[in-house]
Amino acid sequence: MAFEAGPEPTLGEELARHRRRRGLTGRQLGEIVAMSQAKISRIETGTGTTEPDDVGVIARALDLGEDEARRLVARAVVRMQNRMTDWRMTGSGLVRNQERMAELEAATTTYRVFQPVMIHGLLQTSEYARAVMSKFDLAMFGYGAVAEAVSARMRRQEVLTGGRKRFHFLLAEGALANLLCPAAVMLSQIERLRTAARQDNIEIGVVPFGCQWAVPPMHGFDILDDQCVEIDLLNTGLTTQGSADIKIYRDAFDVLWEQAAEDLDGLLDHYVERLLELARPARRATAS
User: Taking the model in full, what pTM does it have?
Assistant: First the structure.
């Protein structure tokens, strides 16, 4: 009769098993490694973050040997990489996130982006960026934070001129249709897209209306060198370096890229005509 192997014990379960073999309680182990009993319990149950350094201290205190200690530390590192990190925007955070993204982009060679509802920050005009950022809760961010964040976003765009970097921007057509700014501002934004698409290191694709989506366009995301994914949500963002997560998003991007319209200029021309119609009443009202 063949027996199936049970599931691999978690990192915390391994540490707890080694502790019990030494005849130690969680409190006793905590006293040895200068950690609270509550912290030992969280590590063993996998609740919250398990720092690799803490795992190394515990493993060596349990006399597991250097090879075993390094193996357990490596498991903790992988666990951290597979965890999604949540960052939340505040007034200063709005600016800091632009600086954080600039640092990531500077270290990235191949950049893949999907945006279902708006133009990506690296392609935005300053007027469009200001309009978008102003839609956020100004009671949280403040007008000064928005202005500073717009300037930081414009500085980020310098990365587009680096010849060795490649950028693949994928939009849903809704990003062209959604009026997050006045029509006149959107007209300039459309021309910005057209200009960017002519750069040798930039590709822009648009998934058109009427297309049967292969993957639901639930939110935007950025894939950096297939090493990191940045995920956009309304009130926060998530970062993951987990290989399984990255594969999911890269596969989704590749499938959606195949659905992009072939005639980008024709699609942009359509929206120029639409926006000119929308802008005319405003121009007549200004003239009168």
Answer: 0.71
